[in-house]
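The authors assume throughout that readers already know how a fold can be written as discrete tokens. The format is easy to grasp once an entry is in front of the reader. For illustration, here is how one protein appears when written out as sequence plus structure tokens:
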Amino acid sequence: TGQEALSAIREDLGDIGMERVLLDVSVALGKGSSLADALAEHKDAFDPAYVAAVRAGENANLHDVMRMLAA
């Protein structure tokens, strides 16, 4: 699940600030938020273009969009 993936990423980060952001994102996902909406709550951590790409992916193929953003 998305929450499990975020948990694994948080464990490897070593950045307490981003760990907190990803914990908030994970909680929002657990409450039913979309990934894009959860990311958008953290404007200081996620660029609006990144959030827009994730939102587009939610309406298309999120896996391909995330792979593109990671490259």
Summary: The radius of gyration is 12 Å. Residues 18 and 63 are 22 Å apart (CA to CA).
